[in-house]
Amino acid sequence: MKYKTTWTKESDIDRKWYLVDVKDQILGRVATKIASLLIGKEKTEIVPNVDCGDYVVVINSDNVKLTRGKELKKMYYRHSGYPGGFKETRFDQQLEKDSTKIITDAVKNMLPQNKLKDVRIARLIVYKGSEHKHSAQNPVTIKL
User: Fold this and answer.
1) Does 44 or 37 have the greater pLDDT score?
2) Band of the pLDDT at 7, cuts 50, 70, 90?
C-alpha cells in the first residue's frame, strides 16, 4: 500500500475570519497569536510555499498594554533617508498618535521574512475602537 502526500493548492484554501479584542492585553502575547493566525499554523493543510492563513480583525488597539513600565522606555525609530532625518517616538506618544501602527508593526516583525509577508500583513485589519465593519463576515472571537 502506497501513501500519497497531499500538497495544498491555492484553490483548496478555506480562509476564516477572526476577531481579536486587545483591550488590556500584553502587546507581545497578542502579536504572536495574531501572527500565528495570519500564517495559518493551526491548520493541518499548511505548506511552506503557499499562504494558508486567515483574516484577523483587531479591535481596541488604543487599550493595548506593555509590561514592567515599558510605556516610557519602548521607542519606535524611523529615518527619512536624508542627513539628520532620524526620528524616534516613545510608545505612549505613538499610542496617542496612531495606535493601529503599534499592533501592525509588532505583528509584521513576527512574520517570517519572505515573499508571503506582504500578502499576510494585508489580511490584518486594526481598529482603534470597539466598532468594526466586518460583521458580515461573521468573525470568530478569539479569547486570549
Assistant:
1) 37
2) confident
